[in-house]
């Protein structure tokens, strides 16, 4: 691949994407509360890759859609994503997002909570305009699954006995639910048959899971230029990523104490990062996570076989390969 | 009136209300995240008066509705209300709500934000089940107006130059938008004609405004038993209520300095509450606010004339009288 797949998507879908950006700018306005577009613009214009709206646009186009509702739906998906980012930053007390200070730092938590609520409401207004109850059903279910995944993540935080099953539920909620809803509604709005819609859903679901597992692994190989984080950020924040869940499941008593202190209690000392990396390597936790991520990427490509042959279908397949290609 | 109007509504609508409570209990459950029903139950079972869902039920019934969708819609309205309460408590850093510790105090801000998001999503799922795009349009618009009103309130906080116009926009957002949507969707689901639906909307709008103005006034006459707050709570929190906006508009230079210090900067000293009350009385600010509240209650009753004659229509009229009847 010469161009990266998301760059190819952005080129092929350039006109659609320009229309989406137009809808986003128009709908983030507020007659009465100028802080709303300020906060939203800070995040929307920070140069996210617009992966999720591109998934909707690509899914609709590869199913032969020629209407205009896919633009509204793509903007809906981006609004839901932006709203969850605003709320996540409050929940995580984050200071940086997309390489810039977070809205909760620049304004306050209050603005982040309320502007997030506004964007959720705007997202629902946009969906209602499509007039498709099936689309509304899919996206309202996704919104519930996202919130449920986030609450689940909060309740298992720092619990080192969290299972790989629970991890998958959290990931399906906080990441995969919006990916799969994004591709599914693209097929639905295009009037694709059920098998195609199911394939698009499965693709988004598997892509989201592969994406999150790759993100977990990148915490250990460092890729600050690409993803804006440093080696061990997740570890220092006590995040229960899949490699750690796997290492805990194979830990002896002393190793368990180590994870209980660092992840469980958040008491990280000098040398712990190297010790953790050593344990992950010794138990094959990084290698196993990498194999799972590759497997989910393969499932994503396989699911696309249900969709019609199309240049965009190939690019979506490349995207699944790309999210795991960066893994050592 | 012997029974209070909201008690009469609860009696007449008892079966419907029991069905609403059943839907609320069923839909606040979460397979994966047990904290969600814990947090929600804390608030939902704290004994709110269920005014908003009763408005939807009453509006549908007085229009002759015999179906079952009004129950889902009433639960939707209560979920939206509960979600905004959870988020408000984070925004206001509140410690008490309905006489009990707030969820953000018992759990954490994170849970309040995320469980609120979950309830918003659940609300949209419930509306989608009604299959009425018009209802979805009304309630998604109301959700946007609520968030917009809350952001506007945040941006004008402690600004003593806030106008009565801006005050009305904030009140329409944070209070009246859900009242008017609640009554409007009751009429819509019943298939009422446009003039009736408009009357129901106008009733809810005026009732919400009267309700908020009465609440502003009760801060000065004390009614801890009824509303769970003490004389001067709003003043000490620096809230820009209508009586204060009116007093500021008539203030001389020294009085302006007083408001700038107490409301603007939040520096409240011994004797300031009495001084503030004196200024409000001297400028007729309490009396004028009371007259406006009575006027909005009268508008609410007048708007009901568009609706069909019905026992419930009379009780809704009594409710409008009741919210301002407590004012000295």
UniProtKB/TrEMBL annotation, chains A, B:
<comment type="similarity">
    <text>Belongs to the FPP/GGPP synthase family.</text>
</comment>
<dbReference type="GO" id="GO:0046872">
    <property type="term" value="F:metal ion binding"/>
</dbReference>
<dbReference type="Pfam" id="PF00348">
    <property type="entry name" value="polyprenyl_synt"/>
</dbReference>
<keyword id="KW-0479">Metal-binding</keyword>
<dbReference type="GO" id="GO:0106350">
    <property type="term" value="F:all-trans-octaprenyl-diphosphate synthase activity"/>
</dbReference>
<keyword id="KW-0460">Magnesium</keyword>
<comment type="function">
    <text>Supplies octaprenyl diphosphate, the precursor for the side chain of the isoprenoid quinones ubiquinone and menaquinone.</text>
</comment>
<protein>
    <recommendedName>
        <fullName>Octaprenyl diphosphate synthase</fullName>
        <ecNumber>2.5.1.90</ecNumber>
    </recommendedName>
</protein>
<dbReference type="InterPro" id="IPR008949">
    <property type="entry name" value="Isoprenoid_synthase_dom_sf"/>
</dbReference>
<keyword id="KW-0808">Transferase</keyword>
<dbReference type="GO" id="GO:0008299">
    <property type="term" value="P:isoprenoid biosynthetic process"/>
</dbReference>
<dbReference type="InterPro" id="IPR000092">
    <property type="entry name" value="Polyprenyl_synt"/>
</dbReference>
<dbReference type="InterPro" id="IPR033749">
    <property type="entry name" value="Polyprenyl_synt_CS"/>
</dbReference>
């Amino acid at each position: 691949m010469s161009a990266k797949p998301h760059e190819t998507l952005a080129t092929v879908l350039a006109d659609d994407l320009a229309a989406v950006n137009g809808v986003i700018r128009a709908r983030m306005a507020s007659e009465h509360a100028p802080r709303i577009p300020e906060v939203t613009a800070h995040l929307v214009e920070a140069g996210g890759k617009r992966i999720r709206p591109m998934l909707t646009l690509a899914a609709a186009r590869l199913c032969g859609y020629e209407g205009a509702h896919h633009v509204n739906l793509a903007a809906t998906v981006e609004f839901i994503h932006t709203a969850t980012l605003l709320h996540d930053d409050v929940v995580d007390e984050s200071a940086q997002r997309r390489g810039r200070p977070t809205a909760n730092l620049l304004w306050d938590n209050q603005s982040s909570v309320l502007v997030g609520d506004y964007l959720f409401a705007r997202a629902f207004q946009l969906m209602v305009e499509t007039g498709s109850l099936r689309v509304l059903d899919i996206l309202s279910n996704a919104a519930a699954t996202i919130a449920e995944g986030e609450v689940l993540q909060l309740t298992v935080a720092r619990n080192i006995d969290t299972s790989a099953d629970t991890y998958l539920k959290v990931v399906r909620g906080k990441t995969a639910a919006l990916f799969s809803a994004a591709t599914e509604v693209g097929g639905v709005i295009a009037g694709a048959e059920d098998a195609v819609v199911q394939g698009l859903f499965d693709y988004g679901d598997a892509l989201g899971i592969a994406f999150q597992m790759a993100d977990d692994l990148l915490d250990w190989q460092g890729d600050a230029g690409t993803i804006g984080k440093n080696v061990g950020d997740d570890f220092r924040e006590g995040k229960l990523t899949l490699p750690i869940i796997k290492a805990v499941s194979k830990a002896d008593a002393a190793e368990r104490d180590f994870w209980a202190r660092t992840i469980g209690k958040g008491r990280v000392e000098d040398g712990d990062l190297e010790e953790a990396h050593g344990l992950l390597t010794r138990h094959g936790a990084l290698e196993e996570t990498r194999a799972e991520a590759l497997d989910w990427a393969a499932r994503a490509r396989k699911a696309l076989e249900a969709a019609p042959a199309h240049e965009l279908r190939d690019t979506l397949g490349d995207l699944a390969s790309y999210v795991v290609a960066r893994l050592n």
